[in-house]
Specification:
Structural class: mainly beta
Shape: globular
Number of helices: 0
Oligomer: single chain
């Protein structure tokens, strides 16, 4: 079992960490404690394995007041040693936040996340970004930069199925799933969903089961205004996509 994240040292600097358990979680060992540069806050956000059993840790490093790096670390020996395969900056002043990684059966590896520009007085910008490697993580290229109708747009995850590669995220009140059937060369929207009458909405995750059904999960809120005030009801929402993402429906709407 592998788990990634971060931990702070005595100087309050974040280190990217990977932990491994060989006894079903009873005990754990640190197999990667990585800091990009002394004093730079570094963290891992996601973990993946490709068909060749290479391990990948995805994360980023932040340099204040705003620059950052998008990182993919790779191990070809089951975690004994690690090398940086992707060290990417979208543009000066932009903050990178890779969120998920997936590999298809052809050996393509995809990392999806968000790049943000937060410097005042200019308005904030969020775009989702997808990068791909075709050679086992040695080299990488950007294959999708997407923003939904001018809204701040965040990618939350990526999965692959025999039907293609899928990236999910949200912009405004809309949940978006985009699909590529040609290894990331071109993309199309296969689901654009807004919860009815929502006043707030956010997508939290994307996954796929072993027969190719897709699931997105997140939350929505509906505010009702009356002459006496207003009330807000929050909902936990799970959606399912079938037939290669061509048909979607809500499979769980739970008030909370």
């Amino acid at each position: 079992i592998y788990s990634v994240g971060s931990g702070r040292d005595a100087a309050n600097i974040s280190h990217a960490l990977m932990m491994r358990s060989g006894d079903q979680g009873a005990t754990w060992q640190t197999i990667e404690d990585y800091n990009y540069l002394p004093g730079a806050n570094t963290s891992f956000a996601s973990f993946g394995v490709d068909p060749a059993q290479n391990l990948y840790a995805v994360g980023g490093v932040n340099f204040y007041p705003g620059d950052s790096r998008w990182l993919v670390r790779r191990s070809a020996d089951l975690g004994a040693t690690w090398q940086t395969g992707d060290d990417f900056s979208y543009a000066s002043g932009w903050v990178s936040a890779p969120k998920g990684i997936a590999a298809d059966n052809s050996g393509n590896i995809y990392v999806a996340g968000t790049v943000s520009y937060l410097h005042s007085p200019q308005p904030a910008i969020d775009r989702w970004l997808v990068r791909r490697s075709r050679d086992g993580g040695a080299t990488w290229a950007t294959v999708d930069v997407y923003q939904y109708n001018g809204y701040l747009t965040t990618a939350v995850g990526v999965v692959t199925t025999p039907a293609g590669v899928f990236v999910a995220g949200f912009g405004g009140l809309h949940w978006i799933v985009r699909k590529s059937v040609d290894g990331g060369q071109t993309w199309s929207i296969v689901n654009d969903y807004a919860y009815p009458n929502a006043s707030g909405s956010g997508l939290g995750g994307l996954t796929v089961d072993n027969v190719g059904n897709l699931f997105t999960a997140g939350g929505a809120s509906v505010t009702t205004v009356t002459k006496h005030g207003s009330t807000t009801q929050n909902y936990w929402v799970v959606r399912k996509g079938i037939n290669g993402g061509t048909s979607w429906s809500n499979v769980c709407v739970s008030p909370n």
